[in-house]
Structure formats: C-alpha cells, structure tokens
Amino acid sequence: MTGHIRQCPIDHTYTLLKVCPKCGAATESVHPARYSPQDRYGKFRRMVREWNR
C-alpha cells in the first residue's frame, strides 16, 4: 500500500485516509510544500499562515 501520510487537524490522528477514522473530519497532508527559488506566491502564503496563528 502506498500513499502519503495525513493528519487530522482536530484530534491529531495520523492516517493514510482522506477522512479521519476517529472523528470523520477531513485530513491534511503533513508534508510541506515544495520549495522553489522562483516561488511567486511564497510571500502571500507566509502572510496567510501568520494571520491564521
């Protein structure tokens, strides 16, 4: 079985599924986005991440 590890944002359960088996919430990828020196929108993604803290 191949896949990317995912995490539930509510109860922090790690799984390979797109839906948490414990609470049924949508899971998120735990891997960071790829880095590129030519990233045009990196500044805006960092701004949004700071606002959401």
Report on this model:
It comes from Methanocorpusculum petauri. Belongs to the NOP10 family. InterPro entries: H/ACA_rnp_Nop10, H/ACA_rnp_Nop10_sf, Nop10_arc-typ. Keywords: Ribonucleoprotein, Ribosome biogenesis, rRNA processing. Involved in ribosome biogenesis; more specifically in 18S rRNA pseudouridylation and in cleavage of pre-rRNA. This protein has about 55 residues and is α+β, with helices and mostly antiparallel strands. It contains one helix and three strands. It has one helix spanning about 40-50, and strands at about 5, 15, 30. A three-stranded antiparallel beta sheet has the order 2-1-3, with no helix packed on it. Strand 1 and strand 2 form a beta hairpin. The protein is elongated.
Describe the secondary structure blueprint for this structure.
Blueprint: E1 6-7, E2 14-15, E3 28-29, H1 42-51
Antiparallel strand pairs: 1-2, 1-3
Choose one word for the global shape. elongated
pLDDT < 50 runs, ≥5 residues: none
Radius of gyration, CA atoms, in whole angstroms: 14 Å
Mean pLDDT: 87
Query: How are the strands of the largest sheet arranged?
Result: 2-1-3
Alpha plus pi helix count = 1
